Structures are given as structure tokens and as C-alpha cells.
Amino acid sequence: MSRECVTFTVGGQVFGLDIGLIRDIRGWGSVTRVPGLPPCVVGVTHLRGALLPVVDLAMRLGWGPSPLSEAHSVLVVQLHDRSGALAVDAVGDLIVIEDASLQEPPVMTATGAHHFVEGLVPLRGHMVQVLDIETLLDDDMTVALDSTD
User: Fold this and answer.
1) pLDDT in tens, 6-20
2) Nearest in space to 57 (alpha carbons), one of 82, 96, 31, 90
3) Residue 40 has pLDDT above 50, yes or no
4) Which residues, 6 or more positions from 143, have their beta carbon under 8 angstroms from its beta carbon?
């Protein structure tokens, strides 16, 4: 079986996310900071009548905050009945990944970013880390995601 993924970069690393989870790809826009959100949620943005939390993906992965600017892109994702936005360095290509080529990431630490990675796929001289969006946006992150109901 295969799936289509959108690739993007964060901190010089290449990631992939199932295209079925992505509702929109936008350039960086206005973000309003709101107190009390998890540290990796840099604020909220307005999209088609809804307020969406914007997650600094580098910070969520444990790499520290990104110097977010107009050069960044935003992936609007939907997980079940909730939507949010992931701030990434740049959006790449649409690729097809065969499930058989997905390799488990190595387990290095109990709290490392490997928990957010479903698997790795070699592609054109580099590794694409396919994100597990359910784990990435789990726990206290779901509190920040806006319900689309």
C-alpha cells in the first residue's frame, strides 16, 4: 500500500505528513500571542472565520524556538474534529511513500523526538521523517487545538 505525503523542512531536516491531514498550505501571516498556551504554541491566526493555534514545529520537536518570519510557511492540519497550524521552514514536494519502505526510527531517549516520527524513508540522498500527527498533537497540545464543530 502507498500514501501521498507533503514534504517540508524544519531545522534543516526533511519531514513528511500525509496529504489527507493537510487542509491548506499558507505563507507566514499575522499571529496573535495568547497567554496560557503551551510554550510551542506561538499564538493564533485567523483562517476562514476560525481561530487556529500556530505550533512552532521546531520547538515542539524539542529543538528550541524557530526565528519565525515571513520566510516560513504554515501547514493547516486537521486531526479528527480539530484543526491547527504548524509553522515550518519551507514546504517541499508531494511524494508517494510505499508502506513497505517505511523504517522504524531508532530509539535514542525516552523523551526524544522519535516519539513523533512514525518512520523514516530514504529519498534522493536524504531521509524523510514521516510524522505521527496523533502523537505530535497529543496530550496538552490538544487543549490548544480549536474544535471545528
Assistant:
1) 999 999 999 999 999
2) 90
3) yes
4) 38
pTM of the model: 0.87
Side-chain half-sphere CA neighbours of 30 within 13 A: 4
**DSSP 3-state of 113:** helix
Contact of 140 with 40, CB cutoff 8 Å: no
Q: Do the bridges between strand 126-131 and strand 13-18 make them parallel or antiparallel, or are there none, so unpaired?
A: parallel
Distance, in Å, from the CA atom of 119 to the CA atom of 34, rounded to the nearest integer, reads 33
Radius of gyration of the chain, Cα coordinates, nearest whole angstrom: 15
d(CA 112, CA 110): 6
3-state DSSP call for residue 25?
Answer: strand
The predicted-structure confidence for 83-127, as pLDDT tens digits, reads as follows 889 999 999 999 999 989 999 887 765 555 567 899 999 988 889
Cα–Cα distance, 118 to 135 (Å, whole number): 9
Q: Domain boundaries in the chain?
A: 2-144
CATH of the domain spanning 2-144? 2.40.50.180
